[in-house]
Specification:
The complex is a heterodimer of chains A (432) and B (159).
Chain A: E1 12-19, E2 27-29, E3 46-56, E4 61-70, E5 77-79, E6 94-96, H1 113-133, H2 135-142, H3 163-176, H4 178-181, H5 204-213, H6 226-237, H7 249-255, H8 334-352, H9 375-384, H10 397-409, H11 420-426
Antiparallel strand pairs in A: 1-2, 1-3, 3-4, 5-6
Chain B: H1 7-33, H2 43-69, E1 76-78, H3 85-113, H4 118-142, E2 146-148
Antiparallel strand pairs in B: 1-2
Helix pairs in contact in B: 1-2, 3-4
Classes of the chains: A alpha+beta (432), B mainly alpha (159).
C-alpha cells in the first residue's frame, strides 16, 4: 500500500485499520511503508472483515473492505505429503506448526478489591497501633474525646481530689518539679518523661514512691512530708488532662513510711485539710513553696547593694576543699552568697543537688566545674538555659549575679564573685 | 501494571490519608499535653500535612487521568459524546457563581467590620477552584474529541 500522490486529495496522511465492525482502529499507519502484522490467532475462528480506511490530506476517507476467513484447525500443516499421494522410499515431510496460539485478548484487570482493603487496614491500622503501643502516646490515643484520661486501670471511678492538697501540690510542683517536667507537664523526653497522659500516674503508691525515693535522673525528695507527697501526687495525677483522682496523706504515708507525717494530718477527711499545705515540718524544700521558680522574688533585694562586687566579704566558699581553678579570687559577700543559696535551693538543687554534685551526665556537677570560671558564660547559661537546663527569664540581673556568685564559690569552688554589672553585660535582657 | 492504572493513585491516596492521620493524632497528643486547650499546628504537623497534600494532589491527578483517558489507550479518533454532562456543567457553573458572590460578600463584610475570617474565605475560594476544575474536566471528557496516534518504536518521535 502506498500513499504517494500529486494533489492533496491523493496524499495519504494515514491509514486506519479496523476489524469487523469495530469503531476503534487496531492500527493507524501514518508513514510509509504501510505495513503491519495481523495476528489471526487472536481472532475467533470464522469470517472476518479487514477494513482499511485511507485518509488523505484533504480529510477525505476511502474505505476498502477485505473479507477473510480465520481457520485455527488443523493446528499443524504437512508439506511434502499430500492426502492420497503414493510414496515410496524415504520422503521429506515438513510439519508446519503455526506460532503458538496467543492467549485471547483479555482486558487486563487491576488488583482485587481485597488488596485495596487489606492495604488500607494495614497502613492506617499500623499508625493507630504505633500510637497505641508507644507508651508516650498510648494514653492520649485511648483517652476519651474530652481529653480526660480514664480514672484508673481497673476502671473504677477516680478518688475525690482534695482541692487544698491540689493547690499545695501546684506550688510544690512549680518550685521543685517544673524545671524538668515543665509547667505544662510535657517534660523533656526521654530524660524527663511527660506527666501529661502518663499512665504510670494511675498507681498512687508508685507515684508517691517515685517522688520520695527518686529513680535515675529523678532526684529523691526525702525531705518531703507525707502531706507534701500527697499534695504533689494529687497535683500531677489531676492536671494537664489527667484524671486519676486524689491521693490522701494516709496513702502517701503507707507508700513512703519513712516520710514524716507533716505539720498536720488532715487528709483522712478532705474537708479538714486546712493545714494540708504542710509547709511546716521543717522540710527544706518547702521554703520554696512560696517562691515558685518563675518568680524567685525572695532573691533578696537586700543583697542588691553590690555585695557581689564586694571583695571584702568574709564569707568564703562553704567548703574548704581546694578550689580547682581560680584560686585566690576575691571573696564574695555573705549577703550575695546567702541570696544565691536561697535561689539555688529553690530552683537549682533538685537537679544539681544540695552539695553541687549534680547527677552526671544529665546534670553536671558544679563542684569543681571549670566552666564556672567564666562569669559571663555562667550568667548566660543560667539566664538562657541550654539543653535540659531550663532558662530563667524572670531572673533579674541581681538574682543572676547572686546565683552565679553562689555556685562559683560554693561546693569548694573559688572563682570569685559576679557583679551585677557583669550579669547585666552577660544578660542584657534581664530585668534590673 | 498498565499504562494508566488506578493502583498507584490509590496507594498515593492511602499514604496521604496516613500522613493526615498521623498529623491528627499528633495534634491530639499536643492538645492533651496542654491540658485540652487547642494549640497551633506544630512544625511536625505542618510537615506531615504538607507531604500529605503533595500525595493527595498526585493521587487526584492519577484518578482524573484514568477517568479522562481510560485505563488503556486505544488508537483512533474518539468522538466526544456529551450525554447528560451539560446538566452537571450547569450546576457546577451556578455553584461557582454563587460561591463567588459569597466570596465577595465575605470580603465586603471584612471591610465593614474590620474582622477578617481567612479560613472561611480560603475555604470558599478553594470550593470555587474545585468547581472550575470540575468544569474543565467535564469539557475535556465530554466536549472535546480525542485522537490517539501510534508511533513505531523506530519513529522519529523522541519518546
Amino acid at each position: 500500500m502506498s500513499g504517494q500522490g500529486s494533489s492533496s486529495s491523493d496524499t495519504v496522511v494515514r491509514v486506519e485499520i479496523y476489524l469487523d465492525d469495530a469503531t476503534e482502529a487496531v492500527r493507524v499507519l501514518s508513514a510509509p511503508p504501510f505495513r503491519f502484522q495481523l495476528d489471526s490467532s487472536a481472532l475467533e475462528q470464522g469470517e472476518h472483515i479487514l477494513r482499511l480506511v485511507r485518509v488523505d490530506a484533504a480529510g477525505g476517507r476511502r474505505e476498502r473492505r477485505i473479507p477473510f476467513n480465520v481457520q485455527h484447525e488443523p493446528a499443524v500443516e504437512v508439506v511434502g505429503l499430500e492426502a492420497g499421494a503414493t510414496v515410496t522410499g524415504r520422503i521429506d515431510v515438513d510439519v508446519a506448526v503455526p506460532a503458538a496460539a496467543a492467549p485471547p485478548r483479555v482486558r487486563p484487570k487491576g488488583p482485587s478489591l481485597w488488596l485495596y482493603i487489606v492495604s488500607t487496614v494495614v497502613v492506617l491500622g499500623g499508625i493507630w497501633a504505633f500510637f497505641m503501643l508507644v507508651p508516650m502516646y498510648s494514653a492520649i490515643v485511648s483517652a476519651p474525646a474530652s481529653g480526660q484520661v480514664s480514672a484508673s486501670p481497673s476502671g473504677a471511678s477516680a478518688p475525690p481530689v482534695d482541692q487544698q492538697l491540689l493547690k499545695t501540690g501546684e506550688t510544690l510542683y512549680a518550685s521543685d518539679c517544673a524545671a524538668c517536667h515543665k509547667p505544662s507537664g510535657e517534660g523533656m523526653p526521654p530524660t524527663f518523661p511527660a506527666l501529661a497522659g502518663n499512665s504510670f500516674l494511675s498507681d498512687p503508691t508508685a507515684v508517691v514512691k517515685r517522688i520520695y525515693d527518686g529513680s535515675g535522673a529523678m532526684p529523691s525528695h526525702h525531705s518531703y512530708t507525707a502531706t507534701q507527697l500527697a499534695a504533689v501526687s494529687t497535683y500531677v495525677r489531676n492536671t494537664w488532662g489527667n484524671g486519676y483522682g486524689g491521693v490522701t496523706v494516709k496513702q502517701a504515708s503507707e507508700a513512703a513510711p519513712q516520710a514524716s507525717a507533716g505539720a498536720s494530718t488532715p487528709s483522712s477527711s478532705p474537708s479538714s485539710s486546712s493545714g494540708a499545705s504542710g509547709s511546716g515540718a521543717g522540710a527544706p524544700s518547702t521554703a520554696s513553696s512560696s517562691a515558685p521558680s518563675s518568680t524567685p522574688s525572695t532573691a533578696g533585694s537586700s543583697t542588691a547593694s553590690g555585695g557581689a562586687s564586694g571583695s571584702s566579704g568574709s564569707a568564703s566558699p562553704s567548703a574548704s576543699a581546694p578550689a580547682p581553678a581560680g584560686s585566690g579570687a576575691a571573696s564574695p559577700s555573705s549577703a550575695a552568697m546567702q541570696a544565691g543559696q536561697k535561689l539555688y535551693t529553690s530552683d537549682c538543687q533538685s537537679c544539681h543537688q544540695p552539695n553541687g554534685a549534680g547527677m552526671p551526665p544529665t546534670f553536671p556537677a558544679l563542684a569543681g566545674d571549670s566552666f564556672l570560671s567564666d562569669p559571663a558564660a555562667v550568667v548566660k547559661r543560667i539566664y538562657e538555659g541550654k539543653g535540659v537546663m531550663p532558662s530563667h527569664p524572670s531572673y533579674t540581673a541581681q538574682e543572676l549575679a547572686d546565683v552565679a556568685t553562689y555556685i562559683r564559690n560554693a561546693f569548694g569552688n573559688d572563682f570569685g564573685p559576679v557583679s551585677v554589672q557583669q550579669a547585666k553585660r552577660a544578660a542584657p535582657k534581664a530585668a534590673q | 501494571m498498565f499504562r494508566n492504572d488506578r493502583v498507584i493513585p490509590f496507594f498515593t491516596l492511602l499514604f496521604a490519608a496516613a500522613l493526615f492521620f498521623m498529623s491528627y493524632l499528633d495534634g491530639r497528643y499536643i492538645t492533651a499535653l496542654s491540658g485540652g486547650k487547642p494549640q497551633p499546628m506544630s512544625v511536625g504537623q505542618i510537615g506531615l500535612v504538607s507531604f500529605g497534600m503533595v500525595f493527595l494532589v498526585y493521587a487526584v491527578i492519577g484518578f482524573v487521568s484514568v477517568w479522562l483517558e481510560g485505563v488503556e489507550l486505544r488508537p483512533g479518533v474518539h468522538r466526544a459524546r456529551p450525554g447528560g454532562a451539560q446538566w452537571v456543567g450547569m450546576a457546577l457553573s451556578a455553584l461557582a457563581v454563587a460561591l463567588s458572590g459569597l466570596f465577595v460578600q465575605g470580603i465586603a463584610h471584612a471591610m465593614r467590620t474590620q474582622q477578617n475570617h481567612p479560613a472561611v474565605e480560603g475555604a470558599i475560594f478553594a470550593a470555587i477552584s474545585l468547581c472550575v476544575a470540575g468544569l474543565l474536566m467535564l469539557y475535556k471528557n465530554y466536549y472535546q474529541d480525542d485522537e490517539v496516534h501510534i508511533e513505531a518504536e523506530d519513529s522519529e518521535v523522541p519518546w
